[in-house]
Give the backbone structure.
Amino acid sequence: MDFEYEIAKRLSQITHVEIEELKNYIEVPPDTTLGDFAFPCFKLAKTLKKAPPAIAEELKAQLTTDEVISQINVVGGYLNFFVNKIAFIQSVMEEAIQKGEDFGRSNIGEGKTVVIDYSSPNIAKPFHIGHLRTTVIGGALYKIYEFLGYHVVGINHLGDWGMGVSKTIAGYEMWKDEYDFSVDPIKSILAIYVRFNQLEKEDESIKERARDAFIRLEKGDAETVKLWKWIIEISLQNYKKIYDLLDSHFDSWNGEAFYNDKMDRVVKELQEKNLLVDSEGAKVVMMPDNMPPCIILTSAGTTIYATRDLAALLYRIDNYHFDKALYVVGSEQSLHFKQVFQTLALMGYEEYAKHCEHIPFGLILDEHGEKIGSRKGTAITLEEIFGEAIEKALKIIEEKNPNLENKEEVAKIVGVGAIIFNDLSNNRVKDEIFDWNQILNFAGETGPYLQYTYVRTQSILRSAPQISSQIDYEALNDQEAIDVIKMLSNFTKVIVSATEKNEPSFIARYLIDLAQSYSRFYNEHQIMCEDKTIQNARLMLTKVVGSTLKTGLGLLGMKCPQKM
């Protein structure tokens, strides 16, 4: 039974507001003693032109209790509902049992397409810590939208064009005989890039070699193009190691170079619509609300990031006809995306522009609040970060459970999961604190804690007899079990909320709350007990919690070991 629907239906009969609208307003109170569900009457204050407490009292006077709703209370501007406990328990548990690993899934996105642009590293450089957040947040959003029935297109807009790669090409041509590319080619390629930049500081004329390499690349010189493609291939081999660890998927690897022949269309359309204005030799589009103009062509006549992003948007409109286009990029690019989306709207694509969204995120800071970006003068690579996480996780596991089978594989799951969860457990716009002691804490609000709670559920189930499908739901009518079941009932709503705000942390926080709620239940009640009817019901609740934790962690890109 959908209790929120039942409550909304009764409210709709009195207020004449649509049932679905009312249902969306219904909440689960944080304090379970106040009620099972709450309706915030301030949502109707504007329509009914009354104060929320007065609305709550009037609604209560017109509602009656029945076999579904057992009690109605007014608390301030809220109307709180208590429902038939056994019917509620049975409804939630039967849905969870029937759906299994699909519990929480919805088809609200059916027939809709979401394009997610994320990760997008610059080639010729190893994956460094600056790419961690975009990759983890984007990867989670990909999985969450897909779980809700959307057709998702993950795009890795590679930085594979421009002077950065041209410096690497020029440096390779100068010094290739001094490096061994057979062992760790990406390391050698990076060394060449760094060396070129250092030399450039001492001798600016060296830039001409990079410019020459770029001209040859633009003209399609066979040897230069071959070298460029090799650098991309080596870079992707390095990146895919990280993507495999993170379980990240992309449907398109079209980078900047892909749009080289598609930017003329942008300039042409802007000219035809009289949107291009001369500004100190450059061609710009004027923005409203005192926003700086969007530069399309520089004074030298060259295109820039905005031109390329507009070309990419037009391509995505033509090929994906998206309902949402998300750009998971750091907060510092907020103005850029405002300008690009505004320009798209001015070009006549208002409906698409309305559904383009920049998904910003904060910095990664160490435990002292300093920006993490370098170690001994070099960028910290994600390979180093994950290697260290796995090593530290292995050390902890060896201390806690030295006889564990497949320790290395478990350490990999725990170490990688710890990094992912640390990133996703707080609101994405906040800066992330990177503290090893906290990240790998098995007792705190961390990834390892959630994985350990899942492992505990599996350990109980392995040691228990087969669970009977005949569940006596009266056996779960204690407060701790009801609290867990209330958490379970909210799973789909939390996942939907995560897409409404593009905020994976909603799911991360929910999983912590669910694990803590189950731990309270586990500590208060023996799962394995003399009364086999009670034992069977508690085992089924344990099974459902374990499955929900696994599903939720999977949506964040984390795996669950069977033992730890």
About this structure: The chain has a mean pLDDT of 93. The radius of gyration is 28 Å. The longest strand covers residues 69-75. Residues 239 and 299 are 36 Å apart (CA to CA).
